[in-house]
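Translate structure to sequence.
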């Protein structure tokens, strides 16, 4: 599914700002009639905070806000605890209040179910491929990553109906999308700008994550306007490296930036291209996936989990890289 500019704005503001603000203020100011009321309120706040902390797309809003939501949620829970300790009596709830209790319990149950999936996405059935992180000089964030079979909200690639329809989702089971963060903790100068140059990762040098041979190169797609509606369904300009055990694909590269060709031998840390916004993408980032060696197209191969510098590549993992 591809979101429009206005849809992304609505989703970002609602999930990352509006709902946390409402829950925090509600928990802080609410007058509790009994301990059941307090427990359900705090469980709802805690479950939503954990949900959005793990599965929110914070590079659109700011990773600083991600941590502030946790801090303010804890403060609201402590404030509410002080209120409940001063209760003189436990009032008997009316029928409609029990309906509210049930709604909170159901919402919390759904959120906990999603959180369990997010935790499970940290674990893999296959042995992860160990790669060197392919960028330098800055703070980088994984905004899609982990076991896509366990949670599509952590890593949409495997469960995407479009990828399934194209029979490429098996190769993308553990695919990783990486972006660079600005000084504001988001991925650009501004919120959801429509100019590629305003994105921190655009034009960043991509370094080979491993030794190997260049197996495939595509360098013909123009870079899209961020959040445009004419992106072709493909991984854009890309480079595929073949090692003795697996393939590594890096896609959405900047047109004209690839410096290697098929058959070249590359070493880990060698510059090979620049990050761009080509192919099926909303905004500049780099798509990376590893696959088992197999006959036929690598798109039909089985995907492999990736560790960068020994670190798991689940959603919202940060990498701090020097020059």
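Result:
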């Amino acid at each position: 599914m591809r979101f429009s500019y206005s849809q992304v704005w609505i989703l970002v503001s609602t999930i990352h700002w509006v709902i946390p603000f409402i829950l925090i203020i509600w928990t802080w100011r609410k007058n509790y009639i009994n301990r059941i009321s307090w427990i359900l309120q705090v469980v709802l706040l805690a479950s939503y905070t954990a949900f959005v902390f793990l599965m929110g797309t914070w590079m659109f809003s700011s990773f600083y806000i991600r941590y502030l939501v946790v801090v303010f949620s804890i403060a609201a829970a402590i404030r509410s605890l002080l209120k409940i300790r001063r209760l003189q009596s436990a009032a008997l709830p009316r029928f409609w209040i029990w309906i509210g209790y049930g709604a909170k319990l159901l919402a919390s149950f759904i959120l906990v179910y999603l959180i369990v999936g997010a935790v499970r996405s940290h674990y893999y059935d296959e042995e992860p491929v160990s790669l060197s992180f392919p960028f330098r000089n800055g703070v980088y964030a994984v905004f899609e990553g982990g076991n896509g079979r366990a949670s599509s909200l952590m890593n949409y690639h495997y469960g995407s109906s479009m990828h399934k329809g194209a029979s490429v989702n098996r190769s993308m089971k553990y695919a990783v999308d990486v972006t660079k963060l600005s000084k504001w903790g988001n991925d650009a100068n501004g919120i959801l700008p429509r100019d590629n140059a305003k994105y921190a990762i655009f034009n960043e040098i991509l370094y080979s994550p491993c030794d190997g041979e260049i197996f495939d190169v595509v360098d013909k797609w123009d870079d899209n306007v961020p959040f445009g509606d004419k992106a072709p369904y493909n991984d854009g300009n890309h480079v595929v490296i073949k090692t003795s055990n697996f393939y590594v694909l890096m896609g959405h590269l900047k047109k004209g930036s690839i410096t290697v060709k098929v058959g070249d031998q590359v070493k880990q840390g060698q510059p090979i291209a620049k990050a761009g916004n080509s192919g099926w993408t909303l905004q500049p980032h780099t798509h990376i996936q590893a696959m088992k060696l197999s006959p036929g197209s690598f798109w039909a191969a089985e995907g492999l989990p990736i560790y960068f510098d020994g670190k798991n590549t689940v959603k919202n993992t940060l990498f701090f890289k020097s020059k």
